[in-house]
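Final report, closing paragraph on structural work. Over the funding period we assembled a curated collection of sequence-structure pairs, and we close with a single example.
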Amino acid sequence: MSERSPAPGGLALIEALLNTLDIASGGDLLDTPDGRAPFGLTEDELPGARELRESLRATLLAHAGHPPHREVTPLGDLLAGAPLYLAIDPSDGSASLAPAGDGPLLSRVAAAVAEALVAGTWSRFKACEAVTCHWAYYDRSPAGRGRWCSMQVCGARAKMRRYRAKEP
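Its predicted structure, as stored:
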């Protein structure tokens, strides 16, 4: 739904995962092999991927100052089981957390969160306030107070609802 540019760095993976679900229509890209392919997911891995997706969504709603959309497993509990290792680049000595093995989705998400924490971008990664949307977006506003994935769609709808509620 968003016309915003993709989230920076590894957050683009998380943004893509969250935005596989269209809450308004109920359509879920993870239901199809083509929708699962970018994440390397098999059909058997879907329950865990969906649990991770909704836990991430609740966290991004919290970044925007909103309560969780539903009860979820805390993100920290899920990421605690992610196999990661400390990768050191021999050319410049830089360090990063990297997924262990072939990089299961949980590990790739954990590495992306760690990267975003170090880069200072994690708290600007949010979920749209609109209850029929909750699309993930990266808040590039100067004050970091963005509320909607799209000002032209979700923001305009919210403002119109407020305006109509004030009419006598």
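The radius of gyration is 17 Å. The chain has six helices and four strands. We thank the funder for supporting this effort.
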